[in-house]
């Protein structure tokens, strides 16, 4: 439906069409926008960037970029990223911690790589956890439907009975933010019943490695003897009745192991005497035993019988594929929840196997924005890195809250300027009032966008961006299958840009010229950049322009790459131990739990009983299929299907508050309030409510007004959320698991 609304987007009367400069103070509600030329706009931006970099360092210029997952910035995203890194800023705000960081990077704590993609054509069971592809990934929704039509089982974990959940073999209605307990409970049933791949756990995980019970750390060969290598871990060989060192760099034991112990307790002789140890797999199993189905039911609301039956399905209907997205990303316990789910999946032995989660081979490309472009000295300055050294800051990605503190308080150092590409920070991150104050405090703010969003309205200069239909766009690999990943397309420009709108890539290249970075940007020649990126594929721009529908690069599917044998033995996994990491020494070294024990969401009736009396409802959110984040509400074709912001609630919860469907209500949290219309949804748990996010834009053709980003008339969901309480590893905030109350509001 968004595609059908494309003409309304391109020809929207409120599009930004020309560069504009503010002529009045930011405290004035009327910015006094004046049209200027591109040269003036870009020269202003480059001069301010240089001035701040010379005084404070390039880290004092932050960048804000919208998501390439759901917007047309995906065309220019590599170029924008290249500009940020060649300029030298380690502070790019793009909400990755709220989108896909856990799926891609928290999963890597276990498997060494991201989640991959389900092998839909071969899967016997699909597990969708916190992910509704019907609103977020339509190609994947089609693949799910085709898989279930041929007989694959479907398990959906979601607080709402939405999308595929309506047709699932098992729908587990989990309370928001309690997913980690459910993953441990499912694993506990599978372990108790022997429903796990013993050979995979023995041969390809660090489950055999011994954990000292006195220190909680992995036993090392240096503990055994003075000559033992402190970099080597230790397993116990039952057949030989003695410890055997394991070399993580080589990914193998230093001698043949006949039968590595996986369960029970081992007393191991060391230099300081006998030490009681357990295999890492036993430590994990012991953790799972603490979450029997009855306890998990109490925590999550999922019936014990469903937990047992789902565990049975995950084992008996193998091979299993799974996928999760923002439903698991947006909680204060997100990283360890994803760890718990990763270990549950490891029990099936299906990772990178036919019918499991695989890593499709995309045509090789030259990366336009490798992290190596950002000097190591600048990477070390990333805001948030000191507090969360394993989080997104390692890639030069900052959270909005951290950057606001730098803007307002100079912590850990001043940020004095920002260049934004489409990210509507006042709507996309918690704390709109803080965001407004932080952005208003800057020496300069420049924003590139299609519309004058509440965030762009705070800028000194705004730059008009062309829509996807007004420019070319290169894409290598489309997913979600091997067939899709082998596809390469140079999307054609359909219509001329309106006004003086230009592509993000053009804007970046022109800025690079004025910053003295022209050589890094192929002399501003986009075609030259595309040729550089495409070179390893063997595909040329001429081929792509001659075949506007795209071309395919034949690539054979590969499975179980970890078992591929080279001169140095099996490839293994890209983890510190070269194995699937059940016990994460890396997390332990940074003060985090090496096993994914469940921690309550920061705002729940259990963790905050002091708030539960006043705010008894559990608050979550979900996407609206008509819109993408805070976009598209000005388009009549889409807005007529969803004219007002909605909050879904169970009929019993509504009746107890004198609310009927369609009433305007006020959703209140300790942080703020928002207005919405009530929609009754009997599939929700009575204590759970689900509100929409992203509302600000008016739709004048339908006579539907807009909404403030903050204040009593606001319908800004993200303003309800505590911006300061976050996951200790990733920095993600509780967009999907907070506490609230609802009352009737004025019409």
Written description of the protein model:
29% of the residues lie in helices and 17% in strands. With 747 residues, it is of the alpha/beta class. Strands 2-1-20-19-18-3-4-17 form an 8-stranded mixed β-sheet. Strands 26-30-27-29-28-31 form a 6-stranded mixed beta barrel. The protein has a 4-stranded parallel β-sheet with strand order 8-7-6-15. It is globular. The two termini are 30 Å apart.
Assembly annotation: single chain
Report mean pLDDT, rounded to a whole number: 96
> Total number of helical segments?
28
Structural class, judged by helices and strands? alpha/beta
Biggest beta-sheet profile: 8 strands, mixed
Point out poorly predicted stretches: none
Envelope shape: globular
Q: How much is the radius of gyration in Å?
A: 27 Å
Summarize this entry quickly:
This protein has 28 helices and 31 strands. Helix 9 (179-193) runs parallel beside helix 16 (334-346), helix 13 packs across helix 14 and helix 18 (400-409) crosses helix 20 (432-440).
